[in-house]
Specification:
This protein is of the alpha/beta class and 318 residues long. The chain is built from twelve helices and 13 strands. Helix 10 links the parallel strand 9 and strand 10. Helix 1 runs antiparallel to helix 2 and helix 10 runs parallel beside helix 11. About 8% of the residues have low confidence.
Length: 318
């Protein structure tokens, strides 16, 4: 396993922006949240036609205003009724996945996929919960997403950050160029190093996840504390010329339900740009700085924790 080498054409650090599209529709979650707090609001969201978790247009408008683009990873969770066995049906966690699933080829989701792609955003794969250990399942999900998108995807991230012993080999065999799964939903930081790495020493690259929004203090009640943590990560990234990868699930841009998260995301992007970071989608970073390798380039071993990373400025806009 080798770390990627810095590119002389891309001085400074980078921030890769990503969004895992787990649940674009609010369904059974409304009943769960209503039992915990604010039942009137959550029950109304189940009855009205407007969907509070459908945030694609708002995110696109926000990022367009900032002059950046990001990666959207779409999930294609198989129907439990079609693929599950009797033992699968008796497992509660499988029903949690099933009840929240959506169809990629539905008119609204397919339109969102194409709008993102045409606008310069990356559309990638969000491998379903079991696909990390199922090559055929992962291949089918990739094909179905590409059929909607109209071209091949570059990479993606596994659902729940779940990796198996052969997941990256499956990714590489299917023609994916990168994975962005290693990380945590409860801790943030550079536990996997400051640079993307090549697990096979070839062109397949892994981008560790630095920050997921749920690992932070709730910005709705503790914005200053949440921002202090984000600023600490930006400081560390800049000091080590790191590639920092950020995950913000689309539903967290709904200010009625998740106050403070949209504002916090915007501040992260603004501050990264102010510091001269390259900011954009993972595929953009890969294509710009990692896809074309010098055959004579030397690679460092995994133990090397700090290195200069690529990029300054905004991601390219169409």
């Amino acid at each position: 396993m080798t770390r990627t080498e810095p590119s002389e054409s891309a001085p400074g650090f980078a921030v890769c922006l990503t969004h895992d599209v787990d649940r674009p529709y609010k369904t059974y979650q409304g009943l769960y949240y209503a039992a915990k707090s604010n039942p009137g609001y959550h029950l109304r969201t189940l009855l009205r036609r407007e969907n509070p978790y459908w945030q694609f247009e708002d995110i696109m408008a926000l990022e367009r205003d900032l002059g950046v683009r990001s990666s959207f990873y779409f999930l294609n969770e198989p129907s439990l009724l079609e693929t599950g066995s009797l033992s699968d049906w008796l497992e509660p966690k499988n029903w949690v996945e099933h009840l929240g699933r959506y169809d990629l080829d539905s008119e609204s989701v397919a339109a969102a996929v194409r709008d993102l792609d045409e606008g310069g955003w990356e559309v990638g794969i969000h491998g379903s919960f079991r696909s990390c250990d199922d090559f055929d399942r992962l291949r089918a999900e990739k094909r179905e997403l590409e059929a909607v998108l109209g071209h091949e995807v570059v990479g993606g991230r596994q659902h729940h950050l779940k990796l198996g012993p052969n997941t990256w080999r499956y990714h590489r065999e299917l023609g994916l160029k990168y994975d962005a799964s290693p990380g945590s939903s409860s801790e943030n930081g550079f536990q996997h190093g400051y640079r993307p790495f090549r697990p096979f020493g070839d062109d397949f690259v892994v981008f560790p996840l630095t920050l997921m929004e749920v690992s932070l203090p709730d910005p709705g009640s503790a914005f200053d504390e949440a921002w202090a943590e984000c600023e600490r990560l930006l400081d560390e990234a800049e000091a080590n010329d790191a590639v920092m990868t950020v995950l913000w699930h689309p539903r967290y841009f709904n200010e009625d339900e998740f106050p403070g998260y949209r504002r916090l995301y915007r501040r992260i992007v603004e501050r990264a740009l102010d510091r001269g970071a390259w900011v954009g989608p993972v595929a953009g970073y890969y294509r710009t700085f990692l896809a074309e390798r010098d055959s004579g380039e030397e690679s460092r071993e995994t133990e090397t924790e700090s290195a200069t990373a690529g990029g300054a400025g905004r991601s390219p806009s169409p």
